[in-house]
Specification:
48% helix
Length: 393
């Protein structure tokens, strides 16, 4: 069975029952090996929830997008059990890769955000650089694959400042049934220190994924605009619309809302150069070549066509972007420099912000050291240095 690991590996997903195709698959395995599958006792179910987060189910998910899966587990797992569960996830990642699917599993302790716990920094793991912003992204992009629903969605926006108290009142009134909800906590105030660490993390991500990182970097840059420290996180906007019943077309699409927020910020500061770049990055991220005719026109293509029409783009502009895989070195260097200029402008703005707020960064010194070393290696201009023009171009 894919991902099978011998030993006392944490198993059992709360509130999950296999559908018929899955049950048939399990029955076939049981017949083949002549070993019946024993259903775990309810008190042994150590995996609370499984969610996909990021671009999944949004306009930003293309055929080449990877999958980020959160495996939320009970907080009482010991180190050995967590290690075995991580090994299981690694086996599943390799199995998915053999099918041509890039997937990353992240083990999330149910109490992680309550206690500000973090794992080690890696190519796909932000380590200690962000807590509230990571939770914000999860809440606005999460798709439930199995088990418990997200409790945060049940708490009205005006009760966010007294989140824990309000949740206890829901349980006391019998509105919610205990052990049926995934509670990762409320979205408390975003600290300037976390804001700094998160901006550094996105700059680091831009080294290998510039088109996606530009959008997220500028989203962060615009957060404190005229309202810090009372920043309005994007997940709170989505919750406000949901509770008001205002669900209109693609208005709650996570990537479209990001683009709208960044567009508002760059228009407000009169920065048409970076606004045009953001739109190009968004277009390339969606990966729908509008200059080429398609037999089947899906919803993502319809939305992108509407946006491009609002931007006033010509057919020539679309043809150039759609041919980006075949750009020659001159055009590739121009695009590379445009991305670099946007990132360096964002970095300068970040330095100014840190000086204004006299920051001492909340991320671990080791994580900050790794990020700054990688950023200098990638972006510092040195005599004789050969610059890597991003292979995505």
């Amino acid at each position: 069975m894919p991902g099978y690991l011998h030993g006392n590996v944490p198993h059992g997903v709360c509130l999950y029952t296999p559908d018929q195709p899955q049950q048939d698959y399990l029955d076939n395995l049981a017949d083949k090996w002549e070993i019946p599958f024993a259903k775990p006792a309810s008190d042994e179910l150590l995996i609370a929830s499984i969610y996909s987060m990021g671009s999944t189910f949004s306009i930003g998910q293309s055929c080449s997008s990877d999958l980020d899966i959160w495996v939320c587990h009970q907080s009482w797992l010991d180190n050995e059990e967590r290690h075995l569960l991580q090994q299981k996830c690694s086996l599943l990642e390799k199995w998915a890769a053999s099918l041509g699917v890039e997937v990353s599993f992240f083990l999330i302790d149910e109490n992680r955000f309550c206690h500000n716990e973090s794992s080690s920094l890696g190519s796909e793991n932000c380590g200690s650089t962000q807590y509230i912003l990571l939770l914000d992204e999860f809440y606005r992009t999460a798709v439930r694959l199995a088990s418990k629903r997200i409790l945060w969605n049940m708490v009205p926006g005006e009760e966010e400042t007294r989140y824990d108290e309000y949740v206890l009142s829901l349980y006391a009134q019998g509105v919610l049934t205990p052990n049926e909800w995934l509670d990762l906590g409320g979205l408390s105030t975003l600290s300037a220190e976390e804001y700094f660490g998160a901006r550094l993390w996105q700059l680091y991500k831009s080294i290998n994924s510039p088109y996606k990182a530009v959008l997220k970097t500028l989203l962060l840059e615009g957060l404190p605009r005229g309202e810090y420290p009372n920043t309005q996180l994007l997940a709170m906007n989505i919750k406000k619309f949901l509770h008001a019943g205002e669900i209109i077309c693609f208005g709650l699409d996570a990537y479209c809302m990001m683009l709208e927020r960044v567009t508002h910020y760059l228009t407000e500061i009169n920065d048409p150069t970076r606004l045009d770049l953001v739109r190009c990055c968004f277009y390339l991220k969606v990966c729908e070549k509008l200059s080429l005719a398609q037999a089947c026109v899906g919803w993502r293509r319809k939305i992108l066509s509407q946006l491009v029409s609002e931007w006033g783009w010509s057919e020539d502009q679309l043809a150039i972007l759609d041919n980006h895989a075949n750009w020659k070195i001159r055009r590739g260097r121009e695009a590379h420099n445009e991305l670099l200029d946007a990132m360096m402008q964002s970095y300068l703005n970040l330095i100014r912000f840190s000086r204004r707020n006299n920051l001492s960064v909340s991320a671990s010194s080791q994580d900050i050291g790794v990020l700054t070393s990688k950023l200098y290696t990638a972006f510092e201009a040195l005599l004789g240095k050969v610059t890597l023009v991003n292979p995505q171009i």
